[in-house]
Design goal:
This protein is of the alpha/beta class. The protein contains 15 helices and nine strands. The chain has two domains: 181 residues, NAD(P)-binding Rossmann-like Domain (Rossmann fold, 3-Layer(aba) Sandwich); 137 residues, no CATH class. α1 packs parallel to α6 and α9 packs across α12.
């Protein structure tokens, strides 16, 4: 598979000029993608539950909003962005879009999970793709508005028309991804790397910040000071990594901080952690995580709710939110849409 970045010059929006793109699901990703494509001159409609908060917001944003079944009838391309729940997204497509849709259409998810685990099986005349932004929905919109974009991966699961790649790349251009660069991927690669990054990198960051904060407080240090050192500064150093790389970050902090980070970091994140990451990947590939997530979904999210509430009530978050308010970290225009459980 060719490893290169596809940019604006490689994609042609004209291929979408006669197409209606139905964005179904108006959460963080759906909102950003719909607005970006509209602002790129594409014909976009939003499918939502009539009278819902999503319906209201999409209308206020100036988009045409229709019931999901009508979106199914009118759409040529479906960006199914039902907020980050594989089985809800699959059910929405299979039960409310597919029965009404034209035989030849294109189905896009922002993750390959539905395809990888066989939750969705597109018909033989359907193009199926994954358009995976490498950033949260808030960044997809804010970077686009700023004149740039977030990078993305594009994978083709099924190419019934013979044009799935070209259409998918044009969609990526409409969403601003080709401004930063789009790389070709496979459904397996996107799903496994996406989940592993979320589970291990994101999960480990949250857990490590909590533990460092806890040790500081347990040793008698002020919780506010612990927040600044364990949580707040981590954001600032991560920004440096984003801009300059890991070595570039270390070169831009104090020599004492850099030496300590390089010396002590590997003692915390050691070989045992690497083996744990390998086990997490194995759990993704063999469907273990998929089964746990599906069970929690079917039972009404008891574990999800419990785990999130524990973090919400953790002193690092409680103290941090008080300080964020005092510092004015949160601005009135911040992208504040969250993904509700339904």
């Amino acid at each position: 598979m060719e490893k290169r970045l596809y940019t604006d010059e490689d994609a042609d929006l004209n291929i979408l000029s006669e197409k209606t793109i139905a964005v179904v699901g108006y959460g963080t990703q759906g909102t950003s993608r719909a607005l970006n494509m509209r602002d790129s001159g594409l014909k976009v409609i939003v499918g939502a539950e009539e009278g819902s908060e999503e319906w209201k917001r999409a209308g206020e944003d100036g988009l045409e909003v229709v019931p999901i079944e009508e979106a199914g009838r009118r759409g040529d391309i479906f960006e199914v962005e039902v907020p980050d729940m594989a089985y809800r997204a699959a059910k929405t497509y299979e039960e409310r879009i597919k029965p009404h849709a034209k035989k030849r259409h294109m189905l896009c998810f922002s993750s390959g999970l539905n395809y990888y685990y066989g939750v969705v099986k597109p018909g033989p005349q359907v193009d199926a793709a994954v358009t995976a932004a490498k950033g949260p929905g808030s960044a997809v919109r804010s970077e686009y508005v700023a004149g740039f974009g977030v990078p993305a991966l594009l994978g083709i699961h099924q190419d019934a028309s013979g044009q799935a790649w070209e259409v998918g790349l044009a969609l990526c251009k409409g969403m601003g991804f080709t401004r930063a660069g789009v790389q070709r991927t496979t459904v397996e690669e996107e799903t496994c790397t996406d989940l592993l990054g979320e589970h291990c990198a994101w999960g480990a960051i949250v857990q490590l910040l909590k533990v460092v904060f806890e040790v500081m407080v347990e040793e008698g240090f002020d919780p506010s000071v612990a927040f600044y050192e364990a949580v707040n500064e981590s954001k600032l150093t991560t920004d440096l990594i984003y801009k300059f790389g890991m070595a570039g970050m270390l070169e831009r902090i104090s020599n004492t901080a850099a030496f300590g980070a390089m010396l002590i970091g590997p003692r915390i994140i050691d070989g045992r952690v690497k083996e744990n990451v390998r086990q997490a990947l194995k759990n993704i590939k063999n469907g273990g995580f998929n089964r746990e997530w599906r069970t929690d979904f079917e039972e009404g999210y008891p574990r999800y709710r419990q785990l999130l509430e524990e973090i919400r009530n953790h002193e690092a978050d409680v103290v941090g939110n008080e300080l964020r308010t005092k510092l004015g970290v949160r601005k009135a225009g911040d992208f504040s849409i969250t993904n509700p459980l339904k």
